[in-house]
Amino acid sequence: MMVTARTRVLTLLGDPIAHSASPEIQNAAFAEAGVDGVYVAVRCAAEDLSGFMHGLARAGGGGNITLPHKEKAAAVVDVPSDAVRRTGACNTFWGVDGRVHGDNTDVDGFRRAVRIFLDGPITGIRVLVLGAGGAARAALLGLLDEGAGEVLIYNRTAERARAVARRIGGERARVVPVISGLDGEGFDLVVNTTRLGLEPGDPPAIDLARLSRAGAAMDLVYGREKTPFVLGAERLGIRSTDGMEMLVQQAASSFERWWNRPAPIDTMRAAVRGPLGR
Ligand code: NAP
């Protein structure tokens, strides 16, 4: 599609942004769907975030927000979604009648990815969430909304886990303050939301052998190689997946907010494989 004076501009705002696969995913989707938009990544300082978001939204555009601005973006939007209000983070924005609307499609992306991965009901399952950052908040909200029965949260810094449980958890979330508290516990699903696995040489977030049972293991980290969490699960014969499907699904959910139509998901899956070297 030709870029013209009518083309809608969607941007990824963050810092750093150079390694993001979002431009490849979204531009491939725009071309497949035949929508008149272009997606570009813009390195953005915290003090410029509000100006960019308001200006782009008023011009009919929008975009995504990535690290380290997702929490600040939640405070910038005029019309936050339920997911933005409950997680305190915003990763997708667009304009309607001059007002900035925002959503946190990490929640929807996680829900869709976990449903595909488990290929069965989430209702009533017992889950261990490792980590207590932004990704943990999205995963916890997604799990509770999908009907998980009980979610235990373990994080290196226990106080952060308590804060996440207080904010989102309700009665179905419980914090495990020390890792030995997990010994012999059994779970239907273990989710790694920590950053461990991003850097070469990182250990897995947990030795899954200390649990009495892990029915399935889902990593939110993804990269060119298998993550240490996925490798650890494979060694124990535990079914596992990395964060690639969530990445694709949160992008699809953002596409749907901007264009009000279903995202071409297979095209988006194929587009992410190039940047990830798969
Ligand atoms: P964040 O807010 O910075 O949180 C980082 C988490 O990792 C915290 O729980 C932190 O524990 C823990 N951590 C960091 N270093 C650690 C270490 N050496 N040992 C143990 N725990 C450690 O980051 P985030 O936004 O939640 O993102 C976390 C990961 O999820 C990233 O790798 C990101 O790429 C991934 N993610 C993937 C998707 C997707 O679509 N697949 C979406 C969102 C995020 P403390 O609290 O103790 O520091």
Explain this structure to me?
The protein has two domains: 8-103 and 245-273, 3-Layer(aba) Sandwich (Rossmann fold); 107-242, NAD(P)-binding Rossmann-like Domain (Rossmann fold). The longest helix has 16 residues, at 244-259. The two termini are 27 Å apart. Helix 1 (22-33) runs antiparallel to helix 10 (265-273). The protein has 278 residues and is of the alpha/beta class. Strands 2-1-3-5-6-4 form a six-stranded mixed β-sheet, with helices on both faces. It has a six-stranded parallel β-sheet with strand order 9-8-7-11-13-14, with helices on both faces. Strands 10-12 form a two-stranded parallel ribbon. The chain is globular. Helix content is 38%, strand content 21%. The chain has ten helices and 14 strands. A hairpin with a 2-residue loop joins strand 5 and strand 6 (99-103). The model has no long low-confidence stretch (mean pLDDT 96). Residues 106, 109, 131-136, 155-157, 160, 193-196, 198, 220-222, 243, 246-247, 250 line the site of NADP nicotinamide-adenine-dinucleotide phosphate.
